[in-house]
């Protein structure tokens, strides 16, 4: 019995090689992450201010404000818009492997794992990070 080698990311998931419905590639993913974090930083700075000369001990919780805003954006936009603002701007969306609605728990768990960073940079042959595998999601081109 021979093991079939996947010739492209997403093949074993039944995804097309390219175009709509194909696995989103790392360049788009990184671009979306940068867009989302930049937006979160601008929002957090606009509402909480920014003191470039404050030491971390003086900054308090405002130091974590961009990450908190980033998490809120992810949790709100994934179930309502099919992806974060960065995902949607760069032509991607998150879908369940079973074809259902992403629901509410998946964006929360996915975001918590994404904030930890390590699950997002460890991925499989289908270019799905551990944060997506754990939640049964796949990021595809829209």
TrEMBL record:
- Recorded superkingdom: Bacteria
The protein's topology relative to the membrane is: Multi-pass membrane protein
Q: InterPro entries, alphabetically?
A: Pra-immunoreactive, RDD, UCP021697
TM spans (from-to): 30-50, 62-84, 104-123
The record's GO CC annotations read: plasma membrane
Residue intervals of the RDD domain: 24-135
Where does the UniProt entry say this protein principally localizes? Answer: membrane
Provide the alphabetized UniProt keywords: Cell membrane, Membrane, Transmembrane, Transmembrane helix
Its subcellular locations are:
Cell membrane
Q: Name one Pfam family in it.
A: RDD
Name of the protein described by the UniProt record: RDD family protein
UniProt organism field = Microbacterium foliorum
């Amino acid at each position: 019995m021979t093991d079939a080698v996947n010739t492209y990311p997403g093949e074993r998931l039944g995804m097309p090689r390219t175009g709509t419905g194909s696995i989103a590639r790392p360049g788009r993913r990184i671009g979306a992450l940068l867009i989302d974090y930049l937006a979160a930083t601008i929002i957090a700075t606009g509402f909480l201010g920014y003191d470039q000369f404050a030491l971390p001990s003086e900054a308090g919780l405002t130091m974590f404000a961009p990450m908190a805003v980033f998490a809120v954006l992810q949790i709100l936009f994934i179930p309502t818009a099919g992806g974060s603002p960065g995902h949607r701007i760069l032509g991607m969306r998150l879908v369940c492997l079973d074809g259902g609605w992403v629901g509410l728990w998946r964006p929360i768990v996915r975001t918590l794992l994404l904030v930890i960073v390590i699950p997002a940079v460890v991925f499989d042959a289908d270019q799905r990070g551990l944060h997506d595998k754990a939640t049964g999601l796949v990021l595809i081109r829209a």
